[in-house]
Amino acid sequence: MSAIGEKQAEISGKITSVTIRDASSEVNLEANVGEFGTVFGTVTFEPPVDADGETGPVVVRGRALRPDGATVPFRGGGTWRKSGKHRWEIKHISLDAEGQRIFVVDEFDMVARTNTGTLYALD
Question: Which residues, in sequence order, are CB contacts of 112 under 8 Å at separation 6+?
Fold first, then answer.
């Protein structure tokens, strides 16, 4: 049975832009992600699925610029939920081009324009 494994890295990033679309919003970010290097990503917040507008799906796409010089694209999906005033938490599973699967818990503070979180291995 697969399970969430050990913590791999902490995320410390900034939101660089937000694009509002009719059916979604896209948040672009750049972050330091420890041994994974510098990560550039786009998180697409899809419309809420609950009546209160508190939670919905996300799609994550990006590239990691690894310390060894490799550029590794990744893609994933999961869920968002409101976690405070102008704050959203996302949880997603991503797969990179090297076949590594990770579970990520992210926090977006839209006023401070920050992104923080933790990456975990998936066994």
Answer: none
Neighbour tally for 106: CB within 10 Å: 25
Name the residue with tokens 């919003």.
Answer: 25
Record the tokens describing residue 8, joined without a space: 């791999």
| Spatial separation of the C-alpha atoms in residues 105 and 54, rounded to whole Å | 17
State the alpha helices, DSSP H only, in the chain: none
Domain ranges of the chain: 4-122
Residues 6+ apart with CB under 8 A from 7: 118, 119, 120
Choose among 22, 38, 20: nearest CA to 30. 38
pLDDT tens for 91-114 read 999 999 999 999 999 999 999 999
Kindly report whether the global pTM for this prediction surpasses the value 0.90. Answer: yes
DSSP class of 97: T
First to last CA, the chain: 8
